[in-house]
Design brief:
CATH class: Alpha Beta
Low-confidence stretches: 1-45
Order of helices and strands: HHHHEEEHEHEHEHHEHEH
Shape: globular
CATH superfamily: Alpha/Beta hydrolase fold, catalytic domain
Structural class: alpha/beta
Strand order of the largest sheet: 1-2-4-3-5-6-7-8
CATH architecture: 3-Layer(aba) Sandwich
Mean pLDDT: 89
Strand content: 5-15%
Radius of gyration: 19 Å
Helix content: 25-40%
CATH topology: Rossmann fold
Number of domains: 1
Oligomer: single chain
Number of strands: 8
Length: about 375
């Protein structure tokens, strides 16, 4: 379960643009946003809810930089302030689902401010893609990045800044894939495009047809779903697997039974949208338990290591927790990071929060560790 230009941000946070990377317990909430109960102040109850969530998932909270596991993590002042601003807006889909506006917002191009970032349009077979390469990046270490947008919107151009950050932190080349969107192209059309793009990327670099030293797959929200599905499909089709995969804020279960869909106070998107996205993406005859549509039902034997990141305040929080638990039970090496105070695809919001910078650093370290295995 998906980051508009800064000049558009506050306008787009109202209505369709509120979901910056659509998939698609409110600690630090404003008192007027907190749930109303029988006793105690609204603000206190919101903080108690957050404390309960963080206690439940304590083992998955990454420690502060340089500290041992289990060290409490405080939310940055910037993160607290940002969440408070988000809570002044109405989450996307609360009152209506405006596909046209969603596509218009997530179809814009966000060109990095760093003019040294190289951007090159290419085609992986018939699939449109863009290379994004930061100065000093190794063109032979390649990440296929799959954008969010609820399977129905989004574009590589909208994710240029995200790709630039990943390339900068991980010193890699990033290939953004413009996979086919629903409802015009239902499951598994977009997934097939992602598999095609990864196969092409293994053999083709940013400047020449040269085999990769290592490949990875990453994506957020709907792109997180497709990240997991792509790796499962590659395994199923007996194709070469990446060295690792990094699904962020993923939607993983179209049966829609994750508890956080009912309990999380998501400031960006309403859980009312999930049946809509499912019906746009899947054909009436598709089984929502198909592992390539709902990766929580996948078999992760033989799957490379996974780094899964999710924010505390996400309706899709438990989709990430559950898929991490399933993959780990199948013997996959899994690192699940649940970030306190954070929201849907917090890594993509500009300017980058301290937590986002740290999360990119974790991705870079994960990639390095996978390549040293």
């Amino acid at each position: 379960m998906a980051r508009f230009l800064m000049s558009q941000r506050m306008r787009l946070l109202q209505g369709a643009g509120a979901w910056c990377a659509v998939c698609l317990v409110a600690g630090f909430a404003l008192a007027e946003d907190a749930p109303k109960g029988a006793s105690g102040s609204a603000k206190d109850r919101a903080l108690e809810d957050s404390a309960a969530v963080l206690a439940k998932y304590r083992e998955f909270i990454p420690p502060p930089a340089g500290k041992p596991a289990g060290t409490p993590r405080a939310v940055s002042p910037e993160g607290v302030a940002y969440l408070q601003r988000l809570r002044k807006n109405t989450p996307f889909g609360t009152n209506q689902f405006d596909l046209k506006a969603l596509r218009a917002g997530m179809g814009t191009r966000r060109v990095p401010t760093n003019k040294e970032i190289q951007i090159t349009l290419v085609k992986a077979g018939d699939v449109p893609c863009e290379w994004v390469i930061a100065p000093g990046a190794d063109p032979d270490v390649r990440v296929l990045y799959i954008h969010g947008g609820g399977f129905v919107s989004g574009s590589g151009g909208f994710y240029l800044t995200v790709a630039a950050h990943l390339s900068t932190y991980a010193k890699c080349a990033v290939l953004l894939v413009d996979y086919r969107l629903a409802p015009e192209h239902k499951f598994p059309a977009g997934l097939d495009d992602c598999v095609t793009a990864h196969e092409w990327m293994r053999a083709n670099g940013p400047t020449e047809a040269k085999a990769a030293k290592a490949t990875f797959v990453a994506g957020d929200s709907a792109g997180g779903n497709l990240t997991l599905a792509t790796v499962l499909a590659l395994r199923n089709r007996k194709l070469t697997l990446p060295a690792g995969a990094m699904p962020l804020s993923s939607t993983t279960d179209f049966t829609l039974v994750s508890e956080s869909l009912k309990t999380a106070n998501d400031p960006i998107i309403s859980s009312k949208t999930m049946p809509v996205f499912r019906d746009y993406y899947l054909k009436a005859t598709d089984d929502p338990r198909d592992p390539l549509a709902s990766p929580v039902f996948g078999d992760y034997h033989g799957i490379p290591p996974l780094l899964i990141q999710v924010g505390e305040h996400e309706m899709l929080r438990d989709d990430s927790v559950r898929v991490a638990q399933k993959a780990k039970a199948d013997g996959c090496q899994v690192t699940l990071e649940l970030w306190p105070g954070m929201f849907h695809v917090f890594q993509s919001h500009e300017p980058l929060l301290p937590e986002a910078r740290e999360a990119f650093g974790h991705m870079a370290a994960f990639m390095q560790k996978c390549m040293s295995r």
